Amino acid sequence: MKMKAVLLHGKNDIRLEEVTLPEVGPDDVQIRVVSDSVCMSTYKAVLEGEDHKRVPNDISEKPTIVGHEFCGDIIAVGENWKHKYKVGDKFVVQPAHFYKGSQEAPGYSYQYCGGNAQYGNTPMEILVMDCLLPYNSDTYYYGSLAEPLSCVIGTFHAMYHVRPGSYVHDMGIKEGGKMAMLASVGPMGLAAIDYALHCDRRPSLLVVTDIDEARLKRAASIYTVEEAAKNGVELHYVNTRMENATEYLRSLSGGTGYDDVICFAPVKPVIEQADDILGFNGCLNFFAGPTDSQFKAPFNWYNVHYLYTHVVGTSGGNTDDMREAIEMMNAGKLNPSALVTHIGGLNAVVDTVLNLPKIPGGKKLIYNHIDLPLAAIDDFEELGKTDPMFAELDRLCKANNGLWNPEAEKYLLANAKKI
Asked: What does each of the 419 residues of the chain score in pLDDT, given as a tens digit?
């Protein structure tokens, strides 16, 4: 089978090409990839090329498919897997399979499986590790966003607090505690706000910070103070572009500091501020992954010794986290639509990935079987003046609080130009 895919050949070298997909073997499951959400981790892999821990050293001879947040349909099943999978089922992939401790993952390591391709052959290790997950929904982009949601869910589960008078670590955020999320109105921060308000282990106080007032206002319009209160959470949005911002954040906690702080930006002043607002037995989660392998920031070691403050870091979620994401979306408890700010076709991937840090907004959602330049939802109205398709997409998004939505996806897939 011939298909189009975006391949990584080396540092800053990705290309949209035609690929011949091998026939399905007895240990393969062949998939049709409908949607993929572009992740900053993909940009980092392209930037680092073969130096990246998940990217093979021989990509110049055997280029790999990029993209790891994908969802679609199963179209063929090898003989050894017919007991578990069937044609017509929908799927999502947990890319971090850790088969025999391996760091390999779709979107980084495989020639014939990745999110920015029209089709793929699922590697056996994904199947053996139960990382090809069933997905019972007709909304593909929810499935593509299950992976980033799982990263957020994993972050909450990885945080911990020491039980007083013992060496027992109670896992998870402190239920009913005080929580702050710094630099957290980007796409992953929005997902974290959604989860904090709707999971079964919520804080009583949630303070969300950033220095971008427009993004703070957008977040506040989606996850409102009133909605948070209905879930038992006192929610504050704070622009920390002010004098004495750290003192103000501590005052919101009642002066005692926070039980849980998540840092969403690999910026030294943000990390220092996170450290400064921790309370007794406070847990700081460094969520943001830096590109600098020598990145360092000061930390108050006096507080580590006497106040039991501590740090954790997470990179991705596990399969259970992804299952939780899918279950919560299907139950209507999580709505990842707020993460999406742009849509495009497979032809838009190369420029989008190479310029990702320069493109404002949140998640860039790619539909692999259409030809469409990357377009911001905020630009749909203007584009609709000359293109009836965008006029209808604009109407559908405005009817959903300005957000991408299942009806818009269905309309796009039915009416967009095929690639």
From this structure: 999 999 999 999 999 999 999 999 999 999 999 999 999 899 999 999 999 999 999 999 999 999 999 999 999 999 999 999 999 999 999 998 999 999 999 999 999 999 999 999 999 999 999 999 999 999 999 999 998 899 999 999 999 999 988 999 999 999 999 999 999 999 899 999 999 999 999 999 999 999 999 999 999 999 999 999 999 999 999 999 999 999 999 999 999 999 999 999 999 999 999 999 999 999 999 998 887 889 999 999 999 999 999 999 987 788 899 999 999 998 889 999 999 999 999 999 999 999 999 999 889 999 999 999 999 999 999 999 999 999 999 999 999 999 999 999 999 999 999 99
> Within 10 Å of residue 84's Cβ, how many Cβ atoms?
13
DSSP symbols for 283-336? EEEE-SPPS-TT------HHHHHHS--EEEE--S--HHHHHHHHHHHHTTS--G
- Please answer whether residues 14 and 66 qualify as being in contact, where contact means their C-beta atoms are separated by less than 8 angstroms: yes
CA-based radius of gyration for the chain: 22
Taken in order 329, 338, 12, 379, the sign of the CA dihedral is positive
Q: How many CB atoms lie within 10 A of CB 231?
A: 13
Tell me the β-bridge partners of 208.
181, 237
* The 64-65 sheet, strands edge to edge: 13-20, 2-10, 64-65
Check if the beta carbon of residue 73 is closer than 8 Å to that of residue 93: no
pTM (two decimals)? 0.88
Phi, psi for residue 124 in degrees, rounded to 5? -60, -35
340-345 and 310-313: which strand pairing?
unpaired
- In terms of Cβ atoms closer than 10 Å to its own Cβ (0-12, 13-18, 19+), residue 61 is exposed
From the number of C-beta atoms within 10 Å of its C-beta (0-12, 13-18, 19+), residue 86 rates as exposed
Q: How far is CA 150 from CA 38, 70, 106, 268, in A?
A: 15, 13, 16, 26
Residue 182 has a CB neighbour count (10 Å cut-off) of: 27
